Amino acid sequence: MGKIEWAMWANEQALAAGLILFTGGIVGVAGLFRGWQFAAYAVAAGLFVCLLEYPRSRRAKGTGVERKWQYGLTVCVKAFGPLTRNYYARAFLHAALCIPAGFILATVLGCVCLGIASLIYLSAAIHGEHWEPILPRVEVRRPAPSIKNPPQNPPPRPPAEMRRKNIDDLEGASYDNPMAVIDEK
Amino acid sequence: MANWIINNGVTCVTLVVWMGINIFLFVWFYLVYDVGDEYFYTRHLLGSALAWARAPAAVLNFNCLLILLPVCRNLLSLIRGSLVCCSRSLRKQLDKNIEFHKLVAYTIALMTAVHVIAHLLNVEWYNNSRQGVYDDLSTALSNLADTKNTTYLNPIRITSLDPQQIPTYLVFTTIAGITGVIITLCLILIITSSMEVIRRSYFEVFWYTHHLFIIFFAGLVIHGAGRIVRSQKDSPPHNFTLCKDRSAEWGRIPQCPVPQFAGNFPQTWMWVIGPMILYLCERLLRLVRYLQTVRYRKIVMHPSKVLELQLVKNGFKMEVGQYVFLNCPAISQLEWHPFTMTSAPEEDFLSVHIRSAGDWTEKLISIMQQLPEGAQGPKMGVDGPFGTASEDVFDYEVAMLVGAGIGVTPFASILKSIWYKFKDSNPVLRTRKIYFYWLCRETNAFEWFADLLQDQEREMEERGIGDFLTYKLFLTGWDQSHANHAMVHFDEETDVITGLKQKTHYGRPNWNKEFEQVRKENPSAVVGTFLCGPAVLAKVLEKKCAEYSEVDPRKTKFYFNKENF
Hints:
heterodimer, A: mainly alpha, 8 helices, B: alpha/beta, Elongation Factor Tu (Ef-tu), domain 3, Rossmann fold, six-stranded parallel sheet, three-stranded antiparallel sheet, 20 helices
């Protein structure tokens, strides 16, 4: 199926799952459903997942399409080092997060979506992918090239015979001096 | 403003009509469920959440009908063909089919969200009624069981489970519930894999996941079969105004017999069956086309990894600038990829120029490179031809053709067609002047096209119509060595890069200058601008078209057409 980076799809799925979890939780809390405490948990978990998944990873080949305003969150997520870099950790985290949401109807859709995202992340981890932050590259300033050396050799000239003036043809041999030549003698 | 109307008017009207229908359906069905008498008791249990669930359902029915239509390529081609008589603005509308498909998809997603949230509320309130949390009337209504003499209103019949789990239990034991969850999941997976990042990078994931729509439609059609949204249907009349406060006496007093309820006949299938059949025909046609034999006439490998395939297929007829879908089972059974044809309708074969741009194309090129001389290539399925904007070139008196890099392919077809038309006789073409702009980064890519242009140039000169076709080539990736080379060969008659009389320009075109020149040379003409290239360039050209157009019929008018894979 091509050189797919599963993590990219897992990221989209997890972000969507976070939103769905959040929305389901809001409905559960606002309607004061039975088991609304699970809904309240879902609001928090959904928000957390959204924040975690919002910054996109740099792709293996170095390019990356940023989401708008993701820089701040990129820095935060990067700060957790190997916990967020490793996709096994993420797969496990999402699997754990989704379980409590399965206990009431309002959040069960978010639970399943997050579970699917967790599986895709597992696939990504098995394929050896990991999360790389997209940060602006710092340009290395090279020193300016040094001043070139002055020429070592005189400019090329035609051979001496050509340069010698032709006595027979004084008119043709003459030329105008740009500057007056003063004979000091 | 007037120019905007000319260029976007039909789109605007289509969107307004579509939105109007959506709003009408929403409001109409909202009122049916919020005001209708037969839902009085249902509303007593559910409040306005009932209407909030049913109104988006109606909008969903309409949009699920619409979503299949823009992707029926053959149907669109058919409509396009039959609209040849009518205005070109209507045909231009058909070019925007994928954008419409996406718009309808977003609407489906939004309405699904509203529908699901409303039903979550409904289930919770049904549950509460069944548990006897609300008033007497609610409890009485919920107690109505499904026996010989009574029909139920509240779909929650069970009370012996933990009340917190009853809603989940209901969802997973009713047809509506299970199908609802499954199709919503399918929808979410389809949407996440259709995001631009995924689609552009890994088309296969997008394409395969998109086929979940089959499960979506199957589930959608049976979603209403359980008939759990119930309304009052009495044969002995039960006046609810009188009887709603006397629930304890129902069945015992003559004015208030026990109310009877039933669900409505499921209607979704009536909406979507038509498009489903159309789409099925569409896929069958693709299969039939795939099974037809395709022979290789010639396989050429050009520099800068451009592969030319000349194929022969029985009964294949095309127009200028159309495209085909190719499928090569040796590479992938299920993938069909679009390529614009570079041959002219006058030729008895079809040719495509394929650039290495991803998995599929790279594998194809490597297979072709390993073929022995004169051998037939791997089995190839060809579906098409499908029409796009380039078909309209000959409708305009003056045409500006802009191709960026490999985007020159539809125009290769057009120029070849012109050449054939002139070779045979003096044709009656509406077009009397063509300006061709080719923007390219590297010189290698010129090679296969330069031959064509050289022939054209010679042909035009011979017939004394050298000014029919004006072409300008722009080398956008030049560097110092190019500049040096050009400086040294400045005085030569033919261009140092292409060998053509027309000199190559370096850098990007100055569109103001170009449009000004076209306008000056063609007063009071209708000019069609065609682009095959990146979206950024499309924006620039669209702006320039609007800028340089005059509504005054005595002045020049520019129309913009874009195609972009």
